[in-house]
Amino acid sequence: MSDPITDQRLLYIHDQLSDEDIQREVDLYGPLTDSVRQLIAATLQTEVGEPDVRRAKALVEEAAAILQERAIPGPYGVRWGASGWKRGWGNAADGVRNAVAPPLTIQTDPDGRTWTDFHLGPQYEGPAGLTHGGVSALILDQVLGDCAVAAGSPGMTGTLTLRYRKPTPLGDLHAEARFDRMDGVKAIVKGHIADAAGICVEAEGIFILPRWAREAAAASTAG
Ligand SMILES: CCCCCCCC/C=C\CCCCCCCC(=O)SCCNC(=O)CCNC(=O)[C@H](O)C(C)(C)COP(=O)(O)OP(=O)(O)OC[C@H]1O[C@@H](n2cnc3c(N)ncnc32)[C@H](O)[C@@H]1OP(=O)(O)O
């Protein structure tokens, strides 16, 4: 029987890929992902006639069949190359190969502040003309989670608390996070999403390295 903890561990993979090979994959798959992202927006915005909709559908199905000819059977997981280059390429917020991701390019300043300027297209709509609250949560989860990583305390999200202070428009937005403190094994990180006029959503996250990873880290330090 499959065990979720074992399944999860098996998807953290050190595959020793060289930086040159990883860069080649970025250059190959990145533009494909961008094209699919364009397709998602076009699918919801198009007003062409019925024959064109049907023709587009057939072309999309043909493209999907080509890509499915050889494919991994499940999630991409998190992989590291020989130099330590980390690829969370299936990640729903910033995955290089995930067209559902806005995408986010998350930066970290020397003082540990983690931030991203990003653009949300029409596919992220919740209330009319506004960003879906769950999408804001997705983005804050990732930006706060990366801030915990930058602070040296990576972890799964234990608790994410949000306060939606004012409606978040679609379009150009900014998100940022700062490490607040450790409380035992819990890393506490605070952040927000803002538009040009100010803060829209505030967040506090508690990130915890799972027990199995804490035990593996303790064993490798001891050994
Ligand atoms: C080889 C490398 C391995 C790396 C490992 C990778 C980690 C990720 C790294 C980098 C990612 C960066 C990007 C992230 C961005 C995206 C994040 C997401 O979307 S995450 C998906 C959503 N979250 C879940 O699905 C969590 C599901 N929950 C769990 O897995 C566990 O419940 C977990 C890890 C949260 C805690 O499990 P326990 O077994 O480690 O916890 P116990 O040992 O019982 O408690 C430790 C302390 O934490 C508190 N605690 C436990 N659960 C809590 C919770 N949910 N909220 C707040 N505190 C909690 C407890 O009260 C205890 O506190 P006291 O030490 O007594 O003060």
Quick summary:
This protein is 37% helix and 27% strand.
Write the layout of secondary structure elements.
Blueprint: H1 4-10, E1 12-14, H2 19-45, H3 50-68, E2 78-80, E3 86-87, E4 107-108, E5 114-120, H4 133-150, E6 156-164, E7 171-183, E8 186-195, E9 198-208, H5 211-222
Parallel strand pairs: 1-2
Antiparallel strand pairs: 2-3, 4-5, 5-7, 6-9, 7-8, 8-9
This protein binds ligand 3VV.
Structure characteristics:
223 residues; cell projection; membrane; globular; Thiol Ester Dehydrase, Chain A; transit peptide; 6-stranded antiparallel sheet; binds ligand 3VV; 2 domains; hydrolase activity; 3-stranded mixed sheet; hydrolase
Structure description:
The chain has 223 residues and is an alpha+beta fold. It folds into 2 domains: 1-94, no CATH class; 102-216, Thiol Ester Dehydrase, Chain A, CATH 3.10.129. It has 5 helices and 9 strands; from the N terminus they run αβααββββαββββα. The chain has helices at 4-10, 19-45, 50-68, 133-150, 211-222; strands spanning 12-14, 78-80, 86-87, 107-108, 114-120, 156-164, 171-183, 186-195, 198-208. The strands form 2 sheets. The protein has a 6-stranded antiparallel beta sheet, covered by helices on one side. The protein has a 3-stranded mixed beta sheet with strand order 1-2-3. The longest helix is centred in the N-terminal third of the chain and has 27 residues, at 19-45. The chain is globular. The model has no long low-confidence stretch (mean pLDDT 95). Bound molecules: ligand 3VV. Residues 12, 141-142, 145-146, 149, 154-159, 184-186, 206, 208-211, 213 line the site of ligand 3VV.
